[in-house]
Amino acid sequence: MTEREALIEHLCDAGRTVVARGLVLASGGNLSVRVPGTDHMLVTASGTWLDRLTPEDLVEVTGEGKPLGDRRPSVEWKLHHHTYAVRPDVSAIVHLHPQHVLLVDMLGAPLRFTTLDHQFYLGSAGRVPFFPAGSEEIATAAAEAAREHNAVVLAHHGCSALGESMEMALRRALNLEEAATMTYRLLLAGNATAQFPPQWVDRIISV
């Protein structure tokens, strides 16, 4: 198996995982990976269901933003493209629609990272206001937020999680939704202050 084939296999596996975890429905969301040794990316095609991905459901897009082949890339391809441009260390991006991330954001509550894993894998998340899907505005805003964060909440839309591998991007997306779920449950319990012990934050080795 070539490196490219392995990346495609990981991407398809991630698609099945995020749907099984309820992080996205039907043909919502999109995934991408960098093509090794190039400035190209592979991104899911428009209208594809993430739990049914095959290698034919991926579109290669050049560093200049030109799709190759006959299929159209996801409407959100610019979201991935612009983020890769400002984060050369990132090799995979997952864009999903997790319910608790959106719920907490719409409540106007800060997203709390309360466990060791939340701090270790994320520590923080950026946020951008609502912009139309596929627009230059959302792609630019998300890329700017990604300069300082490995996860970005997109108001009334979803989130993006980044990683040096698809496994890490997926791990961060899962931790983001878990952090949001715990934040929501704490709010239901009447707690607005619980957080990870601040004196330990700087002693956690980030990844």
Could you give a short description of this structure?
The protein has 207 residues and is α+β, with helices and mostly antiparallel strands. The chain has helices spanning 3-20, 77-86, 99-106, 116-121, 136-146, 166-188, 198-201, and strands spanning 30-34, 41-44, 58-61, 67-68, 92-96, 126-128, 151-154, 158-163. Strands 4-3-2-1-5-8-7-6 form an eight-stranded mixed β-sheet, sandwiched between helices.
Q: What features would you describe in this structure?
A:
By secondary structure, the protein is an alpha+beta fold. 39% of the residues lie in helices and 16% in strands. It is built from 7 helices and 8 strands, in the order H-E-E-E-E-H-E-H-H-E-H-E-E-H-H. It has an 8-stranded mixed β-sheet, sandwiched between helices. Helix 1 (3-20) packs parallel to helix 6 (166-188), helix 2 packs parallel to helix 5 and helix 3 crosses helix 6. The longest helix has 23 residues, at 166-188. The chain is globular, with a radius of gyration of 17 Å. It starts with a helix and ends in a 6-residue tail after the last helix.
